[in-house]
Amino acid sequence: METEIRSSWWTFAGIMLMISGFLNVIDGLVAVLRTDNLDY
Questions:
Q1: Percent of the chain, pLDDT > 90?
Q2: Rg from Cα positions in the chain
């Protein structure tokens, strides 16, 4: 059985994508929940 070693670039890219997705979710929740800063 051959075991594949994950490349460190793939790990780095996956961690960066998870961090950016997490921050994007937080930013979306803030945009939905804070309606007092909208200009009509």
A1: 48
A2: 18
